[in-house]
């Protein structure tokens, strides 16, 4: 859990650390972090929930006639950013929930929505939904004008010891910066693709981890630019190479007891874990729209690059959607391997938790685990195992989402409407675009 700051502690740090500006962050429907920045003279208004902004220009928020929004900072997210601005002094950051002018939590705020679903979890008798994300990203070189290129700083591969290249130096500084901001980084290494990196930080409760996901992206981009590099979390930035995943490790707790663990269960999984797992599998196609929310996401979900394509689960096998890593009692978890880092973490966790809680409520056992390589099976063999495919396009994933009332309820009416509208517009624009591949393929026909 994050440190709980008081208003007085924040005031003291503002003075002691020469904080000149306050950055108030929140997240839109697409998972993009937005911010309002105010001078330190406005500190009292910040701490008293009195900073307003126009929500009509934020994707998925509100119509023009009801646009006034108020930011309620979560004091536990307070941090002084480890870099200053060009005018000197430090910047203090607070992650905020968005409220209406009458003080009610705004239903179109993804963070508020996750808190709502966590409330449903607690009503069901559970205390904590613990999450560990494994975050992958690519580093590319910047050109002389500061724009991104597709030139990579290295051609290393998985776990290579690239101690002297700029990518490795950048990765190490990202880790040091995160640790200085209170993260417990568990691992950092080169991934399979050229210029591809992975940094894993310790699991925590769902809201804290979603907040840290947004902080992680901000820090990674900032430090990369310092090294003359561009960090991207795009799902598949390079054709023919591995894409970026965001594996989602999930466990459920009552007090300090991990209810997914059973010493005598297969893979040490309890019935509760298996019910939760079945909920994830039954609603996987709709969850895919949220966990893989871009046109580009589906160029990662293809055979041959370790990303899952089929709805199944297993222990050691890495081809299914959900894997059960070997772990002790506290760390027993379900690892959903399909999501990528373009996902809005607040929406993704709300959808997964809703599906899992519904699975617990229904008490249905999942399909049998599949330890064979699913990619090498014939279509008939997959049918015999009851293995169904994930959606292969954003269009099909959104159709699955529209047909799944439970996952729509995980977002609520406002976010569901905004999400469908945003994704259908994205698909429409993509469908009208003409690529270099098409010109090369069809120009002489």
From TrEMBL:
It is found in: Cytoplasm. Its main location: cytoplasm. It catalyses: L-glutamate + NH4(+) + ATP = L-glutamine + ADP + phosphate + H(+). Its EC number is 6.3.1.2. The keyword Cytoplasm applies. Residues 17-103 form the GS beta-grasp domain. Its cofactor is Mg(2+). One of its GO terms (molecular function) is metal ion binding. GO terms for biological process: glutamine biosynthetic process. This is Glutamine synthetase. One of its GO terms (cellular component) is membrane. Residues 110-445 form the GS catalytic domain. Gene3D superfamilies: Glutamine synthetase, N-terminal domain, Glutamine synthetase/guanido kinase, catalytic domain.
